[in-house]
Write a structure and sequence with these properties.
The chain is α+β, with helices and mostly antiparallel strands and 321 residues long. It is built from 5 helices and 13 strands. It folds into 2 domains: 198 residues, Lipocalin (Beta Barrel), CATH 2.40.128; 37 residues, no CATH class.
Length: 321
């Protein structure tokens, strides 16, 4: 039985090698330079050669010979020193940071396009929406990648922690060789279950067991609870972390969606920047007001007593009464 499994694995690997000849796992990082449009097209096409995220992740792992184990002695090396306080480099409310928030580069199914159109119609008719973040629910993954607040990243030999200040959000990437939680023991969650491996200073991950959500508020698409994501993280210079994202979702995406995400380290010589505990009850500027049309809105961020009462938004005034 063991020999049959090994033969089947080698057979699958052979198929993947043929299918993925456009890109190899250890190829030099495709820089976001003057040729980025060409590189991005190539990375999108690479993802489209795979039926699902697990197949892509398996290919990357096989071509990396399983990856390389880290030790504490590796941590000071530039590739693994992700210390500091970061924020998203750009992108605003767009999951693809190369385009505007009211656009998408996702190849949507009919169901995915219809869901997005319903969001557009709602915003057109009401001028707003109800964002789950309004009551301190986590942004969830893969939306996690688009949030602009402070981030910290901690690399250890067996785990890498990807921390977002918003809603005290922490993703744990297990790189000690463990498999995903068994399906019979797993349940869907905001950030799912993430495993990964290191190869030549690059962190490769696979995330599954996710709940449904939206890539961002506004007119960005939705994702279903069948979404899986493969990432390749790399520290590209002293101040920048970048990550290739391939998102697979058979419900909303007709093809995997490739984007390049980026985080920039902020100057913090005086050590005043730090990730704070996030709770909607911390101060009055975190009070969420549900408007008459069902959308939600913050108050005016003035740090004055009852600032909703002096809001320029009549709906906010009424909702606060």
């Amino acid at each position: 039985m063991t020999e049959l499994k090994a033969a089947a694995r080698l057979s699958l690997f052979g198929i993947l090698l043929v299918a993925a000849d456009a890109l190899t796992a250890q190829e030099d990082w495709l820089a976001k330079d003057a040729n980025w449009n060409e590189h991005k097209t190539r990375l999108q096409a690479f993802g489209e050669r795979f039926e699902n995220a697990w197949e892509l992740y398996t290919y990357l792992q096989e071509t990396a010979n399983g990856g390389n184990a880290l030790t504490w002695e590796d941590m000071p090396k530039p590739a693994y020193d992700w210390s500091g306080v970061y924020t998203r480099t750009g992108g605003g409310l767009s999951f693809d940071p190369d385009i505007r928030a009211n656009e998408t580069t996702a190849k949507l199914t009919e169901a995915g396009a219809s869901a997005r159109q319903r969001k557009i119609d709602l915003i057109t008719s009401t001028g707003g929406e109800y964002d789950p973040l309004s009551d301190c629910r986590p942004p969830s993954f893969p939306r996690w990648a688009t949030e602009p607040f402070l981030h910290e990243f901690v690399v250890t030999p067996n785990q890498t922690w990807l921390m977002n200040e918003m809603v005290n959000d922490v993703r744990r990437v297990y790189t000690d060789g463990r498999a995903h939680t068994l399906p019979e023991d797993a349940y869907a969650s905001a950030n799912g279950d993430t495993i990964g491996f290191w190869t030549d200073g690059m962190l490769v991950t696979h995330t599954t067991y996710l709940i449904s959500g939206q890539y961002q508020r506004g007119t960005q698409p939705d994702y279903s609870d069948r979404v899986d994501v493969v990432e390749r993280w790399k520290k590209v210079d002293g101040n920048t972390l970048e990550a290739d994202y391939w998102v697979f979702d058979p419900v909303n995406l007709s093809e995997p969606w490739y984007t390049r995400q980026s985080w920039t380290q902020l100057a913090n010589d005086d050590d005043l920047l730090r990730l704070r505990y996030w709770d909607c009850r911390e101060n009055q500027n975190n009070d969420i007001l549900e408007k008459n049309d069902g959308t939600s809105q913050f108050s005016d961020f003035d740090f004055i007593e009852n600032d909703a009462a002096v809001s320029t938004d009549e709906d906010v005034k009424q909702a606060a009464e």
